[in-house]
Amino acid sequence: MRELVEDIAKALVDKPDEVVVNVTEDKGVTILKLTVADDDMGKVIGKQGRIAKAIRTVVRSVANKEKIKVTLEII
Q1: What SS3 class is residue 14?
Q2: Which range is the signal sequence, renumbered to this chain (predicted)?
Q3: What is the pTM of this model?
């Protein structure tokens, strides 16, 4: 899951070296925290959050297949 989010984010940004995904778990929910460079934040979020929503949809789809609960936070 971590690698999936990392690969998607690196493909979108200008500074792929600054993409970091931290994974934590809380009450049975896996929390993925995506951090990118300040300049690249808009590229990951997109207009009206469309790209962020699309990334979350892909992550949830994979999570459903693996029968786990996942939340993606973009910091």
Answers
A1: coil
A2: none
A3: 0.92
